[in-house]
Task: inverse folding
């Protein structure tokens, strides 16, 4: 049994309506994406122009910031135990630099000083972190 002409016309209309809806949706999506990309590009242009001035201000603000780790390290180097290990390190460096041919280095003294300083810093650093 073959479909008659009216059935074919109905099927064609359904197909055409479906195709029209699908094409409309496709065009809507492509237009939406195109508009969104254009908006995004315009937004980037505007924000780039607006952000040129604040970047300079931010750089100035960053120059004013002080690393709390460095200030705490400087304070800890003045503590009694660190002063003692730093003196041992400086004596070793003076001894090694005074000799022209030596295998001695000051690695142990350096590590002792860094350990003492970092031990002091570890107890004070995280009290300053917000």
Result:
């Amino acid at each position: 049994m073959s479909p008659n002409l009216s059935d074919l016309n109905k099927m064609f209309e359904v197909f055409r309506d479906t195709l029209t809806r699908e094409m409309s949706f496709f065009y809507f999506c492509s237009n939406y994406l195109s508009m969104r990309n254009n908006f995004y590009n315009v937004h980037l242009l505007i924000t780039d122009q607006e952000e040129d001035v604040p970047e300079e201000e931010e750089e100035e603000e960053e120059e004013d910031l002080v690393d709390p780790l460095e200030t705490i390290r400087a304070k800890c180097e003045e503590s009694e135990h660190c002063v003692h290990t730093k003196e041992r390190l400086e004596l070793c460096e003076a001894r090694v630099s005074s000799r022209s041919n030596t295998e001695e280095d000051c690695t142990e003294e350096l590590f002792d000083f860094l350990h003492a300083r970092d031990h002091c810093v570890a107890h004070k650093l995280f009290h300053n972190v917000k």
